[in-house]
Amino acid sequence: MKKFLNNIKNSKIGISITLILLLFLYTTINAISYVEAVSTDISDSVFRLHVIANSDSNEDQSLKYKVRDNLLKYMNNICSDCSSKQEAIDLVTEHQEEFKQVALDTIKKEGYYYNVKINIGNFEFPTKQYGDISLPAGYYDALRVEIGEAKGRNWWCVMFPSLCFIDVSSGIVPEESKEELQNILSDEEYSIISDNSDNGIKLKFKLIEFFANNGLLTAKN
Length: 221
What we know:
Layout (H helix, E strand, L loop, with lengths): L1 H42 L3 E6 L5 H22 L5 H10 L1 H14 L6 E10 L2 E3 L2 E3 L2 E10 L6 E7 L14 H10 L2 H7 L5 H15 L8
């Protein structure tokens, strides 16, 4: 009798463990699906700019910011009226050589002779905050500008919608840029990247960060 009762007890424990494992697996699959969907929607909605300095020396970092400033001025001239991400990418692709020349002219004017490499592609980005907007880590389409050996610290912004600040030092995102983001993202997706969100939404942002930082989000094909 005692053996029979122990078998029943063990059987119940085994069933409980199986149910817990199945619940964990179900929750994990749902979480991955959710994170993939949200990350894809966010990354599909923005086009970013990535400038990499030659080195971390004070001189090269200062040069990076001067290149950045002139790239932003040129970008605002050709992309200010873009109404979609694809339109921004098409314009930047069309003027890719001009972007390179702006960088080269700036570098030469400052007394340096570094080469510049320009690429438009899908690149991995860390979590980055723009004023009260935070973009989660993940893979984003971007214009990458590499100065010289490109071994220095990076600088990022968003070309579309324009989160590259009108006054870079102020760290203030233009209201029209926020409105554009709200128009192209769902209410929940916009809440996830907004610093004004509640704790539940912030937890979802942390979930996206966790999956991205542990290599569970992959680049687009």
